[in-house]
Prior knowledge:
The chain is of the alpha/beta class. The protein folds into three domains: 3-69, Winged helix-like DNA-binding domain superfamily/Winged helix DNA-binding domain (Arc Repressor Mutant, subunit A, Orthogonal Bundle); 99-327, 3-Layer(aba) Sandwich (Aspartate Aminotransferase, domain 2); 344-453, no CATH class. The chain contains 17 helices and 19 strands. The strands form seven sheets. It has a seven-stranded mixed β-sheet, with helices on both faces. Helix 2 (32-39) crosses helix 3 (43-55) and helix 7 (153-164) crosses helix 8. The longest helix has 23 residues, at 329-351. It binds pyridoxal-5'-phosphate. The site of pyridoxal-5'-phosphate has 14 residues, from helix 7.
Amino acid sequence: xxxxxxxxxxxxxxxxxxxxxxxxxxxxxxxxxxxxxxxxxxxxxxxxxxxxxxxxxxxxxxxxxxxxxxxxxxxxxxxxxxxxxxxxxxxxxxxxxxxxxxxxxxxxxxxxxxxxxxxxxxxxxxxxxxxxxxxxxxxxxxxxxxxxxxxxxxxxxxxxxxxxxxxxxxxxxxxxxxxxxxxxxxxxxxxxxxxxxxxxxxxxxxxxxxxxxxxxxxxxxxxxxxxxxxxxxxxxxxxxxxxxxxxxxxxxxxxxxxxxxxxxxxxxxxxxxxxxxxxxxxxxxxxxxxxxxxxxxxxxxxxxxxxxxxxxxxxxxxxxxxxxxxxxxxxxxxxxxxxxxxxxxxxxxxxxxxxxxxxxxxxxxxxxxxxxxxxxxxxxxxxxxxxxxxxxxxxxxxxxxxxxxxxxxxxxxxxxxxxxxxxxxxxxxxxxxxxxxxxxxxxxxxxxxxxxxxxxxxxxxx
Length: 462
Ligand SMILES: Cc1ncc(COP(=O)(O)O)c(C=O)c1O
């Protein structure tokens, strides 16, 4: 066997070890001289083995540091792949490098040592300080002493509801709401009460007439699935009502990082509002932490719910998040996401020109009313046949048929899983073409949410 074949065969062996997991992403290969000695080959052959692995995209050489096994690349996307807008999380192409650069400093034994310890619901002092800074907006600045940490936003919601609403009691929610809340309430034995809304969100009258309630769960900013934002006046009215009724609210601020200049309900009713948020959308779902900013008198209760529910943040994630927040990486990513969302909105407006679309120019969502004669069910089925993963149809409480575009799963291009920015193919998803077929003419719309299947109907107002 010549030297030529030799180095390729050795590279094959290493490639097989990578394929079966014996060598893993991030593993450092030994220095070439040592590798040569171990295999009884010349140093020049070892260099060719490493070169071959790099050429095959299996390893990466870093000047002065050595040769590392590369992270597996996502499988190439076939041209006819489903346009799957199922999950509304964007991970931008520049994120991995930014996050890796920030987290590189964590890989020291002393830092890892503290990251391996348990974390309580109250996290650490630096985590509380950085989280309070991150969550501050429009003049509202949470007290770091009242910031608690959950594994993610859903866990922060679950703990807040568990702390505020005993089993068998009633939680008021927007009549169309974030569906996970339905599941959480079911698990906790809490009864959901749908609250009637107008274009500004839940009305004060709906809350008044739905009593007794132990708490309400509200999304003032970009509520799921309709996408609207509660104006300042309605916030003030609701805050006033919370005071009067001595009622608690869980304020879901998951989308509040998308630009808005309105203070949260918590700013107006600090004794009655728990703000829940997370890094899932701001940063990435794989590296998230949930936050609950509590009124002073509720901190202990919610911390205890986080602990007993097993919902507290993991220390490693907390340390990583603190680092990403403290060095500005999270903010850089967040800013890029705001631009990304705006770019997608611009594409959507172009592609759906002439249709009735309701959208906030900063949001990752839009709500699209289908023109006649389309019905939600037929549209969804037809879009699916053409390679778009649309959401399930449903009915609004008023019984009006509509296409529910949920969790970004709909033919307008709000969010696509994966690192890519919107590309022409993406927005060539069949939605707009389909909608124009069958002699359909754009007409006044009715809402189509970008979160098709995620719409949770909570039943009819009692
Ligand atoms: C409205 C709303 N609230 C909360 C969450 C939960 O976020 P996390 O992924 O951090 O649990 C989501 C996630 O999709 C959401 O859409």
